Amino acid sequence: MRKLLIEASATFGLVFFGTGACVVDAVSGGRLGVVGVGLVWGVAVWALAAVSGAHMNPAVTFAAWRSGRLPAGDVAPYAAAQACGAFAASIMLLVLFRERAGALGTTVPAAGLSVSFVLEFAMTFALVLAVLRLPGRHVPAAAGMIVALEAIFAGSLTGASMNPVRSLAPALVSGRLGGLWLYLLAPMLGGWAAAVVSSEQQLKAGDGEDDGQQALDRRVRQPRAAEIGAHRPAGHGGEGQTPDDAWEAPRPAEISDQS
Asked: Tell me: the pLDDT tens digits for 145-162?
């Protein structure tokens, strides 16, 4: 239950600040601009992920399950908690701004359905792959920077959703459902593709480690020929004899000592 509360709370904060920046930008006549809105999204992801460790995104949750990092039974509860947080944020913005709330930061495929679909797929793929492949301590900063970069890059084209509940909640609360299916499907497919690629990279890395360990084991089990020769008994010109094994005549001083 604690994890679900964290997911809901973190997703609430993400959608409240992120889509809230879109609302403020619209109310203020574009004072924030695309760069300002993108930076708000990035900082929100960075801060909330660092504090809570929450997914805040069904695409990330699905990819975590696909990669074997999350039990299957946790996927639906996580997604439900994220949806609850997102809807609470959109309702809060509607209450605060009322008629000025407008579209509540609803994502719109301004670049066309096909281009927007490809962009959302690619942006979600990059985000989720970074989350899966980077060390945990680097994920909040990296995810925040990726979200900010992609929001600045494609915010005016698709809204740079990368997150199904981020698009679902504002669309349903504001009643603007055009192109919603795209923002539900493309991020999930992007997350799935990232999970597949991450799993393949992990397998290859594991195979490489196994090959290296096997090579090391062979070197330990099979000493070099010179080492083998060094441990053979000295002979008289026989097999295994080395220059160090050859007989030497005693030095004159040794002859005199013996006589």
From this structure: 999 999 999 999 999 999
